[in-house]
Amino acid sequence: MFKRILQGIVILLVVAVIGVVFALEPIAKFVIESEGSKQVGARVDVDSVDISFYPTHVALNGLTVANPQEPMRNLLQSEKVSADVDAKALLKMQVIADQVVLSGLQMYTERSTPGTLDGSMPPPKEESASGMPSISLPDPNALLAEEKANIQAEVTEIQTGFTDIESRWKTKSEKVPDQTQFDQYKKRWDELKNKNVIERLAGAKELRDDIKAELRQFDNLKEDLKADSAAVKSLSQRAANLPADQSKRMMSKYGLDQGTEGMLRFLLGDEVNATVQRGLTLYKETMGKMASTEEPAPSTEPAAELPVNILIRKILIDGYQVIGGEKLAYSGEINDVTDKQDYWNKPITMALRGGMEQKSQLVIDGIFDQRNDTLKSVFNMGLKQLALSGVSLSQSPELPLQLEKGIADIAANFSIDGDNLKGSVAGLVNQAKLLVAKTASDNKTANLLAAALEDVSKLVMDLSVNGTVNDPAIKLKSNLDLILGDVLGAELKSQLADAQTKLKSKLSEDYGPQMTQLQDKQNMLSQYQDLLGDREAALQALMKEMM
Question: Which of 45, 293, 418, 544 is the right S-S partner for 374, CB 3.0 to 4.6 Å?
Fold first, then answer.
């Protein structure tokens, strides 16, 4: 997203430069906002634009970029974005700068008005109709609708596997010696029987060599058949297990496979997913789009032109995030930013440091290496002695769980190799005080949980993320799981079992006939096995006769 935003604003800065020449700054601001919004797919607002020449300096004051995925949040906002840029390159839609400054940067801030292009409010999230006050289990129909593309991709892959094998053996069978070829060998042998001894011996040797060559072909075909038979068996098994495997995959993706080992995940609800997805969205829309940059069209300009669209030696950043009612300030830099890393033969590196007045320390380091065909990224974050207060953990109105206070240490490590994702977040909150806010007096579950959490003074959480960037599998475990499981476990297990049964049933209903047809193909190679066996036996018999 950041790159797309940058590319869009580059176009707008060109308009701004031209606008200033003609004293049309209001027009330049209007174009930046309107065209920038089209580039991002959400509102882009700028308080003012400042441009000076000799050298060319461009500044966007009060830049706000709405998040197209969450219209009531900003993807980012910055008090000021400024840089001395190469004016000639800028007019050619290139950003060439030694240094860019992002001041007062904040990420994922809330908006008072929707950031949609038409200004409309986003539709409200559907509420789950779960019978349990603390847990929202997704409806199987909703899960299937959301996962339809992934399920269909699995079905298509199985179908394609069968089709490829069938097509391959149809071609191979046409090259296998047929009855006509065998008759020719038999005729040659019958003719040799009437020859003198010397001619018969010489002719028989030549005939045996020809037949041996054919038999060697059969040896290779049998090896191929063995391998493809195993592949057919595997595909048939995948077809037979599709409802069970896909329901298990979806339960895992949404954290519904953990039972009482993942109780805190249920209380946190969608917020865990949302937090991870925000980070992955930002990654995909910045570094991901950098990696997928299309090769530029052949240029008619002189060879001295730089073969890049973005070339920034250093981006200086300062900003803050509000966490637990406190400002966590940070500053740092991103180095060697370009859409063609082989230009410098360096990876993009990031380093941020920060803290609060209470001296909590933030350390963030990242390396984004796209010099080879695959983008490889490593991101590490450490946050020590972070004072938290009044942090809402569960958004359930019937069972609101809150961390009233605590001192947190958090360590996060993520690595991405192409599309493969692996990451973990370890959190420890000492001096913790957990509260279940006031609920209806007849809410037995809430009262039991409030009593169970009363003596908890330490909160330990371990989050793991695996899978792919587009389809992450998220699990969250904590030291509260056993406590919460004792209160909610029996009913939870019952609901989870019911949800998985419904999911498997729905998958069988929607994909069962198609999978049955695919399973029926498990014997599709038997005809070729019989064919090879018959033809080979005939040639072996002829060879034996010639002995």
Answer: 418
All residues at 6 or more sequence positions from 252 whose CB lies less than 8 Å from its CB, including other chains: 473, 475
DSSP assignment of 291-351? HTPPPPPPP-S-TTS-S-SEEEEEEEEEEEEEETTEEEEEEEEEEEEES-GGGTT--EEEE
Is the Cβ–Cβ distance between 536 and 215 less than 8 Å?
Answer: yes
408-424 pLDDT tens trace: 899 999 998 888 889 99
**Tokens matching residue 490:** 């029996």
| 48 closest CA partner among 68, 37, 64 | 64
Instruction: Establish how many alpha carbons lie within 13 A of residue 492's alpha carbon, considering only the half-sphere containing its beta carbon.
Output: 26
Q: What are the residues whose beta carbons fall under 8 Å from the beta carbon of 387, sequence distance 6 or more?
A: 324, 326, 356, 358, 360, 405, 406, 407, 408
- Say which residues have a Cβ less than 8 Å from residue 408's Cβ, sequence separation at least 6: 383, 385, 386, 387, 388, 427, 428, 429, 430
> DSSP assignment of 213-261, as one string?
HHHHHHHHHHHHHHHHHHHHHHHHHHHHHHHHHHHHHHHHHTTTT-GGG
Q: Report residue 48 CA to chain centroid gap.
A: 37
Residue 268, Cβ density class (10 Å: 0-12 exposed, 13-18 middle, ≥19 buried): buried
Q: Which region holds residue 78: left if phi is over 0, alpha if psi is between -120 and 50, else beta?
A: beta
Which amino acid does the sequence have at 282? L
Question: Distance (Å, rounded) from C-alpha 189 to C-alpha 404?
Answer: 96
Our CA angle for 123, 124, 129, nearest 5°, is: 135
Interatomic CA distance for residues 314 and 335, integer angstroms: 5
- Calpha distance 203→546 (Å, rounded): 11
Q: What is the pLDDT of residues 296-349, one digit of tens each?
A: 444 444 434 667 777 888 999 999 988 766 788 999 999 988 877 667 788 889
C-alpha pair distances (Å), 219 with each of 201, 212, 227, 424, 493:
26, 10, 13, 50, 54
What would the pLDDT profile of 125-176 be if each residue is shown by its tens digit?
A: 554 433 333 445 667 787 788 788 888 888 888 888 888 888 888 887 777 6
- What is the CB neighbour count within 10 angstroms for residue 484? 23
Residue 289's SS3 state is helix
